[in-house]
C-alpha cells in the first residue's frame, strides 16, 4: 500500500503559540505565555471509507480546523475520504509500522487485533440507548481495554463520536427477522460483526464499503448494514430499495492511530489532538442527530420502503441475537464479560 508522503514543507517563522496543554478552545487565553512553533508542521493523514457528504466527514473537517487553530499550525490533519488511503485493515496494519495515519475503527476490529474483550461493544442489541454508550467509554473497564490496545501498538485518540444506529438495507423486503434467512449481507471484515449478522439468520460477507454498490448491482450480495448516512451517502438505495430500521448496533466509533507515533508527539500536541477530538466529536454528534431525520426522509422520498421496528419485531430480533453470546469462547472473551460490561454501562 502506498501512502502519500508526510508533508513537512510548511515553514512558520517568528510566530508565538499558546501553551495549550489541558485547555479547550473555550478556555484559550490569548495573553498566555509564549512558546516556539516547530519549524515544520507535523501532518497526520486520516483515511476513512465515508464520502465527504456524510456528517462524520464534516466532523473531521471541524477537527482539522480546531487542530490547526489550537496548535497555531504546528499540527495539521489531512483528510482522505472514500478509502483513498486503503481499507481499514490496511490502515491499521500501517499504524503497527508507526505510520502517521489515523482511521475510524471499533471494538470489533480491536478484537481481531488482540484485545478480545473489546469486541463486545459491537454485539447486536447490547445497548438500549446512547447514554449507556457514553457511560461505558468513561468506565474503568473501557480505560483498561484502551490500555491493552495501546500495548498492542494502537492508540485510541477519541471515542465520543456517534456513527449512528446501524440498520439493514436489502434488495427484498425484511419485515421480520425470519426474512433475513439466507440473505448475503455486507459487513466490515471482522469476526464480531460477521457472527453478529449470522446469528440473525443472514450470511455475512466482508468487503470494503466502497465495493458494496457494485456487489449489490451484480447480485453478489443482497444488501448491507450501516448508518443511515452511510447507506444514503453510498446511494445503496438505488440498488437495494428496502430498509428495516433494526438498529442492531448503536455504533459509537473511535479514531485510532499508531501508539508509537502518538507518543512521539510533544505533550502539548498530544493534548491538543485529544481535546480537539472530543470537541469535534460533540460537533459530529449534533450533525448526526439532525442528519438521521433528514436522511430517512430522503430515502423515503427516493422510493425506499421502510419497515419500522415494533415491540414484537424487536423482541424477535433480540431473541435471535442471544445466540451471539454462545460464541464467547470463539471470541476468546474473559469469563463473565457480558455481566461486567452491563455493570460498566450502568445496568
Describe the structure.
This is C4-dicarboxylate ABC transporter substrate-binding protein. It comes from Candidatus Epulonipiscium fishelsonii. The chain is α/β, with parallel strands linked by helices. The protein has one domain (37-344): D-Maltodextrin-Binding Protein, domain 2. Helices cover 39% and strands 21% of the residues. It contains 13 helices and 11 strands. It has helices at residues 55-70, 88-95, 107-112, 130-137, 140-151, 191-198, 212-217, 228-233, 259-264, 267-301, 311-321, 328-331, 337-344, and strands spanning 16-18, 34-36, 42-47, 75-80, 101-105, 154-170, 184-187, 203-206, 223-226, 242-258, 305-307. Helix 1 (55-70) runs antiparallel to helix 10 (267-301).
List its salient traits.
C4-dicarboxylate ABC transporter substrate-binding protein; two-stranded antiparallel sheet; nine-stranded mixed sheet; alpha/beta; 39% helix; D-Maltodextrin-Binding Protein, domain 2; 347 residues
**Rg over CA atoms:** 21 Å
User: What share of residues is helical?
Assistant: 25-40%
The fold-level CATH name is D-Maltodextrin-Binding Protein, domain 2
Number of structural units classed as domains: 1
What average pLDDT do the residues reach? 88
Strand content: 15-25%
Low-confidence stretches: 1-37
Structural class call reads alpha/beta
Query: What does the main sheet amount to?
Result: 9 strands, mixed
* N/C terminus separation: 44 Å
Supply the CATH architecture.
3-Layer(aba) Sandwich
Give me the strand/helix succession. EEEHEHEHHHEEHEHEHEHHEHHH
Give the strand tally. Answer: 11
> Helical segment tally?
13
CATH class: Alpha Beta
The CATH homologous superfamily corresponds to Bacterial extracellular solute-binding protein, family 7
Report the principal-axis shape: globular
Protein name: C4-dicarboxylate ABC transporter substrate-binding protein
Amino acid at each position: 500500500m502506498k501512502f502519500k508522503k508526510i508533508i513537512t514543507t510548511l515553514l512558520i517563522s517568528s510566530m508565538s503559540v499558546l501553551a495549550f496543554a489541558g485547555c479547550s478552545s473555550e478556555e484559550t487565553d490569548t495573553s498566555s505565555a509564549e512558546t516556539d512553533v516547530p519549524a515544520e508542521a507535523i501532518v497526520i493523514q486520516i483515511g476513512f471509507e465515508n464520502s465527504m457528504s456524510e456528517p462524520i466527514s464534516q466532523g473531521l473537517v471541524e477537527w482539522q480546523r480546531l487542530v490547526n487553530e489550537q496548535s497555531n499550525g504546528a499540527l495539521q490533519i489531512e483528510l482522505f475520504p472514500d478509502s483513498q488511503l486503503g481499507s481499514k485493515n490496511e490502515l491499521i496494519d500501517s499504524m503497527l509500522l508507526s505510520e502517521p495515519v489515523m482511521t475510524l475503527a471499533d471494538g470489533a476490529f480491536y478484537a481481531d487485533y488482540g484485545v478480545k474483550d473489546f469486541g463486545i461493544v459491537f454485539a447486536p442489541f447490547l445497548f438500549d440507548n446512547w447514554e449507556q454508550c457514553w457511560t461505558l467509554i468513561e468506565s474503568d473497564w473501557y480505560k483498561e481495554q484502551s490500555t491493552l490496545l495501546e500495548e498492542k501498538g494502537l492508540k485510541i485518540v477519541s471515542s465520543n463520536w456517534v456513527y449512528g444506529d446501524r440498520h439493514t438495507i436489502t434488495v427484498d423486503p425484511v419485515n421480520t427477522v425470519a426474512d433475513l434467512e439466507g440473505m448475503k449481507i455486507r459487513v466490515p471484515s471482522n469476526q464480531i460483526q460477521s457472527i453478529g449478522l449470522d446469528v440473525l439468520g443472514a450470511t455475512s460477507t466482508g468487503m470494503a464499503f466502497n465495493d458494496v454498490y457494485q456487489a449489490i448491482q451484480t447480485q453478489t450480495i443482497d444488501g448491507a448494514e450501516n448508518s443511515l448516512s452511510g447507506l444514503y451517502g453510498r446511494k445503496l438505495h438505488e440498488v437495494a430499495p428496502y430498509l428495516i430500521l433494526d438498529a442492531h448496533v448503536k455504533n459509537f466509533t473511535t479514531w485510532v492511530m499508531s501508539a508509537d507515533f502518538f507518543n512521539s508527539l510533544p505533550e502539548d500536541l498530544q493534548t491538543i489532538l485529544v481535546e480537539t477530538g472530543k470537541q469535534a466529536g460533540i460537533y459530529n454528534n449534533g450533525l448526526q442527530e439532525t442528519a438521521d431525520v433528514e436522511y430517512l426522509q430522503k430515502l423515503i422520498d427516493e422510493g425506499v420502503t421502510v419497515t419500522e421496528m415494533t415491540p414484537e419485531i424487536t423482541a424477535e430480533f433480540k431473541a435471535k441475537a442471544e445466540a451471539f453470546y454462545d460464541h464467547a469462547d470463539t471470541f476468546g472473551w474473559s469469563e463473565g464479560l457480558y455481566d461486567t460490561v452491563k455493570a460498566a454501562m450502568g445496568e
